Amino acid sequence: MAMSDFQSSIDASIARNRGRRPWIERVPPAYWVLAILLLVMPGFASNFVLYQIFGWTFILGIIASSLMFLAGYGGMVSLAQMTFAGVAGYMVAIFGDSAIDTISQGWPWYITIPLALLVAVLFATIVGWLAVRTAGIYTIMITLAVAAAFFYFARQNYEVFNGFTGFQSVSPPQLFGVDWQDAVPFYYLTLFWAVAAYFSVLYLSRAPFGLALQGVRDNPRRMGALGYNVTAHRVAAYSFSAILAGIGGILLAWQSGQISPGTVSIQPSIDILVIAVVGGIRHPIGAFIGAFLYVLLKTFAVDVLISLGLDGDRFNLLIGMGFLLVVFFSPDGLLGLWEKAKDRSRRDPLTGRPRE
Amino acid sequence: MRDWARAHPIWTGIAALLVLILLYLILAVWPEWIDSILRSKKIFLSALFNGITLGGLYFLVASGFTLIFGLMRNVNLAHGSLYLMGGYIGYYVSYTTGYWLLAFPIAFVVVGFVGVLLQFFVFRRMEGEDLRQTLVTIGISIVIADLLLWVVGGDFYVITPPDWLSGPLETGIITSQRVRSSGEVTNFYLSYPMVRIVIFCASVVIGVGMWLLLNRTRIGMLIRAGVDDRDMLSATGARIQLVFAGVFAFGAGLAGMAGVVGGTFQSVAPGEDIRFLLASLVVVIVGGMGSIPGAALGALLIGLAEQIGSIYFPTYAVVLTFLIMVGVLAFRPQGLLGRT
Predict the structure, then answer these.
(1) Which of A130, A317, A331 sits opposite B326 (nearest CB)?
(2) TM segments (chain B) (predicted)?
(3) Is the CB of A175 inside 8 Å of chain B's CB atoms?
(4) For residues B241 and B96, what is the distance between their CA atoms, to the nearest angstrom?
(5) Is B315 in the A-facing interface, judged by CB distances under 8 Å?
(6) pLDDT in tens, B205-222
(7) Domains delineated in chain A
């Protein structure tokens, strides 16, 4: 009897595996369309679109996905993500090459880039250790204060951070004889890291660490009682988020060719929050959707406003209103709206039951 | 207070010693060696007084913030925008009517009304949703900042106080002495702007008044009960939404009044909203969320740190305030006077 039970369970498992298609067929068609579209984009898009629109979108998306990871899976909303990115950007400029050769060390890229990421991670770990001593709303305030402190510090310090002007001509290394600051190589570079960030967040959310982190988010006391170290998981989440933010920060310094206190001031820090929330913090794709919208608005809103006969300076009003509407009506951002719409279309309008 | 002193004799001793040293530094004629460490007494004293009066201004802004948070757990990150709004209204009123004093009640009422609108249309719809409140108020502050920029423009405005307040006040504190060869001693006294002293006294009066209101009146009893257990209070039949709206109006009005004060002290300009939002955040984090005495202590500490820091190590004065915050967080996360 027991033997046949065992046998039947094996049979069931084999049958299940037979029904399972190879992984390449299991990728949803939307992914294929998007991937092919993104890969062939340089064939028909102009350099401006590649570099300014998509390059920037991917960079902001990477930084916002670091916030999405912290906020969505860890329940910790940090306004210091842009600061972590800025720290990495500054370190690349300080250890590597820039126009300020009295400060820049001019070390090779295989030292500066890991070093920059390491410094960003260390910084984020310290900030995280401070921030996780508090919860919820206090975290936002403390990280906001940290962001402000770093901004003022970088603006005042001329020995290391070169004060108000910052560093100009920060450029990527000439690897494999390619100028990575050219539009097409830069597009592929940012695309690569954006995809890497997206899948690493997605992977980590299903890995034991991510699952434990989500448990800590939902019920820290129970996770503590189960033997998980709640503080360590939270601090580690900050450290991981700094890797993503640091990559984004380095790319951002390369994209704009400079890093200055303006990059890490309070407005950009809030912008990252706006991007992540407008896109939706339940899924990593939200960060990139939000970034794309933000970049489109930032690039074209002035023209649109002027063509509508309004003042082009009212850009912030437009962004603020859009942000306000989204968070007011859908706390889960655009993804939340999308889910709601999908859910509604599945239900019968008369009975409210799911359709067959 | 007395219980605390009995429980912590060493800390009380240290505090008393610090107060004595401070009194000595203020009142005594400095010998050479203190002069050489702290530059001159005049510089030190004006930094000290500037710090205390700036602390008074910070207290006005932060007490509204902490009151609103303490009662309703509402996180109002648009508090800085209310401050800025009050500053512009104060400038407009005092410029058109010529009465500086009139600016205060009008800024209080108008900004308080904006606060009621905020409570009614925004916060009441998302009670208990911290994150959403934060995000929505960030959105509101972006919108208000841009609207103000649109209407008022990016210029600096300074509210001029009336004549009877504008001169300096001779304090009886000796800054330095010169001994002539004939043995005659000339004393130099510190003079300090009258308006700053008056405003500081006013903020002390407001602070004491708030403390009395909270601890000695029926409304204060309602508010304190609401802080402790909101549901139980509404179950006893108190009209809690009315209390909420009132407290929100009061807190917002205080921010508006602080805007007038700030416009007289310094100036009103775009960007001040974020500065004062940050200042009040740091103040309430240092002092303890929801505690009025905590806000007073935090405001004093931060104001002093900012001013004294800007004299003795000008480059990193701003960073010093954040270092204080980090230190407090590391050793006492609930704030100096916060309840656990």
Answers:
(1) A130
(2) 12-31, 43-68, 75-93, 99-123, 135-159, 194-214, 242-265, 277-304, 311-331
(3) no
(4) 36
(5) yes
(6) 988 888 888 888 888 888
(7) 48-298 (1.10.3470)
